Amino acid sequence: MPCLSRLLSSSVLALTLALAPVGAPASFADTAAGPALSYSLTEGRNLNAFLREGPVAAHLLLRSGKDARILVAFPAGNSSVGLWLDTPEAASWTLTGAPRPVTAPDAKGRPLHGIVFDATLKADSAIPRQGVLSSTRVLRDYEALHTVPAQVRVEPTRTDDALDWSRDRLDGKPGYRLTVTVTHGQLTEGGLKAGADGTIGLRVTALTGETPLTPLAGGHLLNASAAPQPASRDALTFLSYQEKLLAGSWRFDTYFGRDTLMSVMLMMPALQPEAITAGLRSVLARLSPSGEVAHEEDIGEFAILDHLKTDGTTSDAPIYDYKMVDSDFLLAPVARAWLLDDPRGQAVAAEFLTAPDGRHGESEAAGAALVRNLRRVVAQATPFAAAPGTSTLVRLKPGQQVGEWRDSNTGLGGGVYPYDVNAILVPAALDAAAALLASRLLDPWLDAAARSDLAKAAGLAKVWRAKAPALFDVAVAPAQARQAITAYAAKIGVPADAALAALSKGPVRFHALSLDAAGRPVPVLHSDEGFALLFGHPSAAALDAAVDATARPFPAGLMTGVGMLVANPAYAPPAVQDLFPRAAYHGTVVWSWQQALTAAGLARQLARTDLPTATRDRLTKMQTTLWQAIDAGKDVRNSELWSWDFRDGRYVIAPFGAGGADADESNAAQLWSTVYLAVRPPKR
Question: Is residue 62 part of a domain?
Fold first, then answer.
């Protein structure tokens, strides 16, 4: 932001603030939104407050420390407003009371919805650097890259005690507003100056003109079996809407295909049918013509920015991202779990499949959309079944470094053939396609060609299950494993004794995280065996191997005192190890939902009756160890992920994003981290 001496001195436009809860428009009166949702939590340097009431849904984030910021994210249109400040390292925020819902007219009399709140910043001074009002994607980019598209830049107007940023959306529709009024201290030419007590008091109003979503809450969201976890219920409620389930806030306040499918799958026993079908319909509505599952959507002003680049228009028609390969193979197993395996889903399956898929404008039946995806699954699986080998595996799409849930550029360690997709998800999707075909539920949408395609699924699944996992086999000789663990432990500053003691006399065996372009395994131990536990029917030997590899203490395995890590590169070359630090998004960190995935998978395997006693004992022991780790992180388990420090002889939780070296910051509310409402510890 330019120096305050160059700010316009015109008066701030008058606001009409309804500080009490605002009246809901007719579209909200017809929903069962339930009582107002209001809660807060602090993680590291981030103070978060959430509000959902009537047409208002907002997530306030106040970040303390150097480069403090005020940010308010809205599920409506995936929009946000934010102000970045230059502040001392010790600057810290206090929220004075909970945010309140507000509706105010823009300059043309059109309603904007948002929040007003009072906050105190403990700092001698704060210099406003940049205000950004746009799509949350734009604010995400500014946080990471410190750049703002020229089209959305806006300068504030100023009065004696307030700064006001306001603008229409790029297509002229109602836009965004951020007003910061100094209530204690001063607004000077140089910035914000503290009062005599060393604090700056602010009243902030944050507004968006994007169309509100329709809430899911209460009895429309969860059933009586859901765990009595207030924090998880609050986070899930904030993220749940009839139109879609949001992936996470603040950074992902919109649809993500994989997140939706995994959350519905893991939480299905605790969700009401309305919530399950909302999630599935949102995925089906966004399928590509060839049946690909959309990963993310560009909506609102971010869609307009996309169209301006590609066709020169200000259209806000959504643009969908289809670069992920794993999501294509997740839809079928989740659809099967609901439509065939859950009695509630069985009862409504025909109705669900016959109804429109949920898109605006022209729609097709959900069954027709599902058939498109199943045919894509079969087409993708056919080459490998005909000629098993690395070259016929499912690989990342051309030009992409990402393609499955480890979607940071280094998440697969440079690999292009992901283990989880090829060894687990492809055969699981094929099995589901065969089961759905046999159910006859899809008959209305099957012509001869489609029926012929799906009839191949069962045979293809057998080949994939028999041939694909072995391509990822890694075996590390005992002496080499001990040397690798000792060296890596010293490198990252953790003890090796417990890890070394847990090694057996034989080689360390595990499946590689991925294969590189030449078909060589990337020898990183990982948590993705959880997919096999949840979606597969592994042999006793395969279960024994998976448990032996992952349940050992880190850095031999994945277990720490603060959770199960998603990656352990101890057995990899140093250059690969450097791709997986505890400051990396998919490095040696704990992802909440991956622990839940493994816990749910262990419970599923222990429900089998065909396993030998020794294997069951291994599974039970790992289950106990895992739940101890989950309980150790219960205060942060609704977050996206967390890192760790090793202090005073033990691992301690470090909120991800709290450190200056962290690649990003964790969402305070993450959809698939709320799945512990359904994923419960075993009753002994």
Answer: yes
